[in-house]
Amino acid sequence: MIINGFAPIADVDAKILILGSMPGVASLEAHQYYAHKRNAFWPLMARLLDEDLSFDYQAKVAMLLRHSIALWDVIRCCERRGSSDSTIRNALPNDFTAFWNTHKAIALICCNGTTAYHMAKKFDITQGMSTYDNRPSLVMAPSTSCANTIPFDEKLECWQRILANVSGFLPR
Q: Which of 78, 91, 133, 137 has the most neighbouring CB atoms within 10 Å?
């Protein structure tokens, strides 16, 4: 079955772009990033940003935007059965060249998991960044998916180390 992803959530002054691979079934049904109730993304972000975790999706999105975080996926569309990244076939990338042209403050591209990272490399998503003075780093963080059995506190520690590299990003 061919599935299509979401538009990016991003302000023009975003400093960090967090990329997933492709929304899972629960997210596609809810029309929300990271909608699966056991995905650690939103609780992890709330902890990293020293914010209360809201149950309201728009409040979660506003939390990211307040902290100059953009959210998107590497893949625009693909064939996939279920939610597992291992069943992704015939993936096509999002239009990153257009994104870079309007989001020039990105200092870090953080891939949420191995598949997002490998797809970002495969599609060479930074190739359209010729207008950047300094290319942002492309890094991989542990997947927040419930399929990743790394304990929450270990995921949190890894994400903290990665995001701390962006000057002035994490609350003290």
A: 78
